[in-house]
Amino acid sequence: MEAWLSLVGDYGFPIAVTFYLLHRVEKKLDQLNQSVMYLGKLVQMGNEETNALKRQVAIKPVGK
After folding, report:
1. What is the Cα–Cα distance from 47 to 43, expressed in whole angstroms?
2. Which domain of life is it from (predicted)?
3. 21-43 per-position pLDDT tens digit
4. How far apart are CA 50 and CA 20, in angstroms?
5. For the whole prediction, is pTM greater than 0.85?
């Protein structure tokens, strides 16, 4: 029993800090993931609009 109390006393604070920091990092990673997914959708929309504009204007390559 004393061994367990000694272990909790020695490692309890670092473990608590680790769990707290992991919890905070998890929230930040979720926000980052949502931002990257949103940015991907914006890029895809931009590519579709660019392709549609190219078809409408029928851009010819320079030098041909």
Report:
1. 6
2. Bacteria
3. 998 999 899 989 988 888 888 88
4. 45
5. no
- The amino acid present at 37, given as its one-letter code, is M
Q: Which amino acid is at 19?
A: F
Which residue reads 């800090």 in tokens?
17
Length of the chain: 64
Q: Which residue has the tokens 């190219």?
A: 54
Amino acid identity of residue 52, one-letter, is A
Tokens of 33: 């993931």
* Residue whose token pair is 């909790």: 8
How far is 13 from 17, CA to CA, in rounded Å? 6
First CA to last CA across the chain, in angstroms?
86
